[in-house]
């Protein structure tokens, strides 16, 4: 009797699912991860048609990558015919399994072109379809106060022409941070050539003009009486549509810091409010690390140089919601990762790319050997889990989430303290400047030089 009842319930259950309207089934499928959708497609012909349809998988891509990335990716296709021939399910799988990048050099020496001078510890951002470069350090410990911009739009592989922008502010500095919040730039801190640390917060807005090119206006943001202590070589990223988080850096008297602060911009962007996050445990003091947004409420911290001048490879996730903030460390062991011994680094770039992954490039190890490698950290599943230490303490958990990518095309040199940013599609990464090896031994300061190269890194998809 029990068996008959179970069988009847199964049949009735199946019938009720099969009789659901298509839009209701779409809604259910959009709640499932990729593997579950593909398993659902194997149950019958009707479900296979539904669960492999281009309409559904474009919606899945929008769900997991965001509308901005999908729209930018669509506009990057050469024509409608190419777009029609590439199913979204195939594109989704390609992004999930990307294992190589292709590099392109974007600016050749030209006596008729005025280019930014080589530099390191500057800022580079993609905002309003433009690359914006500001400040940095130069030979002899000098700071730079110049601003450069170039419009990219959808022409990711074109030779680019930099335009120098006269702004007058902020003052010259290096080791500052600058992040994009909606269509604004938010800049904080940095160090000048006298060694002074800054604690000012600036808001910048890029404007495109049909005849006059690109302009950028900066304003010193009113933050009231509370702000983080002065610092440079810290890390920062945006979180949600109105907040920026910063962590660590080098403060007064060369002391490395371990504090975390968040600023929330007002709706009219006229002022901001800083507050300090207190969480136990929290990342130890460091500088030259990275902080990258991985969701509306989470950022991921990687690497840097610690109090004992050691180079780190630890991973921390900061979870921020209204009235709640918490750091959680994610443990793993290098011996579980192929070629993982090269992971500890400082002065690297870590950028969120399409598919909810972190692309890490360059940096240097404890012997000041600079890197030219590319690593992907797949943190897409971490962002979906509840932030609970017992779930994230497995040392083998991330072993299969680290992947070293194979570089193709142009071979840029090893570098550290460069800057990188990704376009709206999340597929194209722009890298500029940094410290590179000179003619002498890399460990000798005299053997270092500043770089002024701009190159493009494309995630290779077999389209």
Q: How would you briefly describe this protein structure?
A:
With 463 residues, the protein is of the alpha+beta class.
Describe this structure in words.
Residues 14-60 form the F-box domain. Keywords: Kelch repeat. This is F-box domain-containing protein. InterPro entries: F-box-like_dom_sf (IPR036047), F-box_dom (IPR001810), Kelch-typ_b-propeller (IPR015915). There is one protein chain. With 463 residues, this protein is of the alpha+beta class. 17% of the residues lie in helices and 38% in strands. It has nine helices and 29 strands. The protein has helices at 2-18, 22-29, 34-41, 45-51, 54-65, 67-76, 80-85, 88-96, 389-392, and strands at 100-105, 123-127, 130-134, 137-138, 142-143, 147-151, 163-165, 177-181, 184-191, 197-209, 213-220, 235-239, 243-250, 256-265, 272-277, 286-287, 290-293, 298-306, 311-321, 324-330, 349-353, 357-361, 374-378, 402-404, 406-409, 415-416, 419-422, 428-437, 448-459. Helix 3 packs antiparallel against helix 4 and helix 5 (54-65) packs across helix 6. The chain is globular and about 70 Å long. Mean pLDDT is 86; it is low at 1-14 and 383-387.
């Amino acid at each position: 009797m029990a068996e008959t009842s179970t069988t009847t319930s199964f049949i009735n259950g199946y019938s009720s699912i099969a009789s659901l309207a298509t839009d209701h089934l779409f809604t259910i499928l959009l709640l499932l991860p990729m593997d579950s959708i593909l398993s659902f497609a194997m149950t019958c012909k009707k479900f296979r048609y539904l669960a492999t349809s281009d309409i559904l998988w474009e919606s899945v891509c929008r769900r997991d990558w965001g509308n901005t990335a999908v729209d930018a990716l669509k506009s990057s296709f050469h024509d409608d015919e190419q777009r029609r021939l590439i199913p979204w399910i195939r594109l989704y799988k390609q992004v999930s399994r990307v294992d190589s990048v292709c590099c392109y050099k974007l600016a050749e020496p030209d006596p008729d072109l005025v280019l930014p001078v080589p530099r390191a510890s500057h800022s580079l951002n993609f905002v309003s379809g433009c690359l914006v470069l500001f400040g940095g350090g130069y030979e002899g410990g000098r700071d730079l106060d110049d601003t450069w911009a170039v419009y990219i739009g959808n022409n990711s592989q074109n030779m680019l022409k930099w335009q120098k922008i006269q702004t007058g502010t902020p003052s010259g500095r290096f080791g500052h941070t600058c992040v994009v919040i909606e269509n604004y730039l938010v800049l904080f801190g940095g160090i000048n050539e006298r060694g002074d640390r800054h604690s000012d917060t600036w808001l910048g807005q890029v404007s495109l003009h049909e005849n006059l090119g690109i302009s950028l206006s900066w304003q010193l943001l009113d933050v009231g009486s509370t702000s983080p202590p002065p610092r440079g070589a810290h890390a920062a990223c945006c979180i949600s549509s109105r907040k920026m988080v910063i962590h660590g850096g080098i403060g007064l008297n060369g002391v490395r810091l371990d504090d975390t602060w968040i600023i929330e911009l007002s709706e009219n962007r006229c002022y901001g409010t800083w507050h300090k996050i207190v969480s136990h445990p929290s990342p130890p003091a460091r500088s030259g690390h990275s902080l990258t947004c991985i969701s509306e409420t989470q950022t991921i911290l990687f690497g840097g140089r610690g109090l004992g001048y050691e180079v780190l490879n630890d991973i921390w996730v900061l979870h921020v919601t209204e009235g709640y903030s918490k750091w959680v460390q994610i443990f793993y062991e290098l011996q579980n990762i192929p070629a993982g011994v090269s992971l500890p680094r400082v002065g690297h770039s870590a950028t969120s790319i399409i598919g909810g992954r972190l692309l890490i490039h360059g940096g240097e190890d404890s012997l000041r050997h600079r890197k030219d490698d590319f690593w992907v950290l797949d943190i897409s599943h971490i962002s979906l889990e509840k932030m609970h230490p017992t779930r994230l303490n497995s040392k083998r958990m991330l072993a299969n989430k680290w992947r070293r990518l194979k570089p193709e095309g142009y071979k840029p040199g090893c570098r550290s303290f460069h800057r990188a940013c990704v376009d709206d599609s999340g597929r194209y990464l722009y890298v500029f400047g940094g410290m590179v090896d000179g003619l002498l031994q890399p460990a000798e300061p005299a053997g270092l030089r500043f770089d002024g190269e701009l190159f493009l890194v494309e995630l290779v998809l077999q389209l």
